[in-house]
Amino acid sequence: MSRFEKQTVLVTGGAGGQGASHVRALHAEGADVVIADIDAERGAGLAAELGDGARFVRLDVSREESWAAAVAETEKAFGALTILVNNAGVQNPPALIESTDRATWTRILDINLTGTFLGIKAAAPALRRAGGGSIINIASTMGIGGTAFYAPYVASKWAVRGLTQTAALELGRDNIRVNAIHPGVVATPFITEPAAGSDAPIADFYSPEPFAVPRLGQPADITALLLFLTSPQAAFITGAEYVIDGGLLLGPALRKEAA
Ligand SMILES: NC(=O)c1ccc[n+]([C@@H]2O[C@H](COP(=O)([O-])OP(=O)(O)OC[C@H]3O[C@@H](n4cnc5c(N)ncnc54)[C@H](O)[C@@H]3O)[C@@H](O)[C@H]2O)c1
């Protein structure tokens, strides 16, 4: 399949988890891919595994100068950038708001929100030079409602929604679409390993059993939606938000025996 032939895609946080799944699928469908991540070992390893049409670029999404270099390297390697996936994100260690220190708040907002802002800012001129393209911002179901103990993360993902809509309005006439994806709980190190500063991973406390689709999300679930949204089939979709959570936000499904 070559749905993404002649497309150049930059995926932040592309070295692992959902980002790596997006990278693999886009590359398999013909795109040139730039794996942009702070994890040089895994990122370079994935680029080497994929071979032609794949590059690793070290990027800390919270640093503006890092973004300028990543976009420049992408254009140098593959020509015009046509798709940006703002996927890199980090979780805060669980804590009440009153026990959350300012440094944690700032770190989470810097990466999840400011990183997405800087990505749009750096990529928009490149996408315009390409004649148009698409931006996907990965938010979260935690950006739809409140979640106790996760205030920095929740606030960062809510804000990404406003940024997505605003960017869609600003860039639409340049043929650049901007959409957001809200994954539920997805089986990646994000939930199977403790967040920096905490001892236990989210997976220790979470069970999908009560929900309509009683399983964890897999990176491939999210990738399937991302491929649709970045493809020409989605040409009329912008400023939109897609919840992909197996029914998590619907709340517990009643058991048949209870009917
Ligand atoms: N896994 C879930 O349950 C879940 C649910 C909803 C939303 N999300 C969101 O999905 C996105 C991907 O998460 P994941 O599950 O793949 O997590 P993950 O922890 O498996 O992967 C995150 C990747 O981002 C990279 N990264 C971290 N900080 C970075 C920085 N400053 N600059 C560049 N790269 C950085 C990491 O090295 C890693 O490769 C995140 O935005 C996350 O908030 C995840």
TrEMBL record:
Coiled coil: none annotated. GO terms for molecular function: oxidoreductase activity. It comes from the Bacteria. Keywords: Oxidoreductase. Gene3D superfamilies: NAD(P)-binding Rossmann-like Domain. InterPro entries: NAD(P)-bd_dom_sf, Sc_DH/Rdtase_CS, SDR_fam. Belongs to the short-chain dehydrogenases/reductases (SDR) family. This is 3alpha(Or 20beta)-hydroxysteroid dehydrogenase.
